[in-house]
Amino acid sequence: MLDDFTADSLDKLGINYTLSNVLTGEYTIVTNQPRYLNITADLGKSITLISNRTLPTLWLRGGNAIWTDNEITLDDANKVGTDWGSDLNPDGNVNFDSIVNIQDLALVGGNYGLTSADAYGTWAP
What is the pLDDT of residues 66-125, one digit of tens each? Predict the structure, then answer.
């Protein structure tokens, strides 16, 4: 690969990123969204581009308050509990709505036990 290409997501359901002027070649797909399970290089998600390409929908799973470990565990629920009621946007605010509350705990609970490998194992770019 000659260059890395990055794009910031947009708040547009279904089509939230576009890369322009990308050279033909193989690229590794990774994500880096705080408080969500991310696709990391070790998951081996790559794509070979030879022309314009639309990727299949990818829904990142929220609730990963300790977001550097890429697994949703009791530690994430504890982080939500520790940050409960805070409006300072701590990591316990997993849904980014500016307050740590039951909605954050619901995201942790709904995705409890997932790892990045579990959540994205069948997704293929």
Answer: 988 999 999 999 999 999 999 998 999 999 999 999 999 999 999 999 999 999 999 998
The letter for the amino acid at 117 is A
Residue 104 dihedral angles phi and psi, to the nearest 5°: -70, -45
The model's pTM is 0.83
Q: Tell which CATH architecture fits domain 1-125.
A: Sandwich (2.60)
Task: Tell me how far CA of residue 3 lies from CA of 26, 32, 59, 64, 125, in angstroms.
Answer: 11, 18, 26, 30, 19
* Domain locations along the chain: 1-125
Distances (CA, A) of 4 to 27, 53, 65: 8, 17, 28
Task: Give 8 or 86, the one with higher predicted confidence.
Answer: 86
Among 102, 61, 98, 105, which residue's Cα sits nearest to residue 79? 105
Q: Is 81 helix (H, G, I), strand (E, B) or coil?
A: helix
